[in-house]
Amino acid sequence: MSTFNTSSDQDARRVFTELLTTERLRIFGYIRTLVPHNSDAEDVYQHVCLTLWNKFSEFDQERDFFSWACGIAFFTVCNFRRSIQRDRHFFSQELIETMSAERMRHLSNHNTRLELLQDCFSGLSSADQELLLQATFEKQSIKEFAEKAGKTVQTLYNRLSTLRRELAQCILRKLKSEGQSQ
């Protein structure tokens, strides 16, 4: 393991840490799209992080870190697949390449989608916002929430389904109005 004695080494470490922290969920999401099992995806992610760190001195900071990281992740996934080739439950190389390109396209506007989700969410009634927050972030079951709210479980599931669909449609409308792809 290298030690960081010089300020340029410390700067590189800081920049790398900031970039990886910012993009870690998107990178893992990209890998998870290409690797069917979560535990395998976590192993691949660890290899990708090590490779990113080892090759960081080669990274052109004028380029997009996420795209660079996904390029490395793609080849790491390919190497992983070769090492377990005998398992018939894995995707073909052609499918992996297609899924990779599609996932990159989808993730390229991830931050925009999050901003639009927040905007669409703020347009909901406070009761609907509370329902979505309870269902998404609280550690109580829908059944417990339904009992507290005096509603049936099915009623809440139906409302949640409707709200999620409305949010998705709102995001798509806003993306189209901004001329972005879905």
UniProtKB/TrEMBL annotation:
Please name the Gene3D superfamilies in this protein's record. 1.10.1740.10, Winged helix-like DNA-binding domain superfamily/Winged helix DNA-binding domain
Taxonomic superkingdom: Bacteria
- Looking at the record, the residues that make up the RNA polymerase sigma-70 region domain are 24-86
This one is known as RNA polymerase sigma factor
Example of a GO biological process term: DNA-templated transcription initiation
Phylogenetic lineage: Bacteria, Pseudomonadati, Planctomycetota, Planctomycetia, Planctomycetales
Which SUPFAM superfamilies does the UniProt record give? Sigma2 domain of RNA polymerase sigma factors (SSF88946), Sigma3 and sigma4 domains of RNA polymerase sigma factors (SSF88659)
> Species name for this entry?
Gimesia aquarii
Q: Which UniProt keywords apply?
A: Sigma factor, Transcription, Transcription regulation
Q: Which InterPro entries match?
A: RNA_pol_sigma-70-like, RNA_pol_sigma-70_dom, RNA_pol_sigma70_ECF_RHOBA, RNA_pol_sigma70_r2, RNA_pol_sigma_r2, RNA_pol_sigma_r3/r4-like, WH-like_DNA-bd_sf
Q: Which family does it belong to?
A: Belongs to the sigma-70 factor family. ECF subfamily.
Q: Name one GO molecular function term.
A: sigma factor activity
Q: Name one Pfam family in it.
A: Sigma70_r2
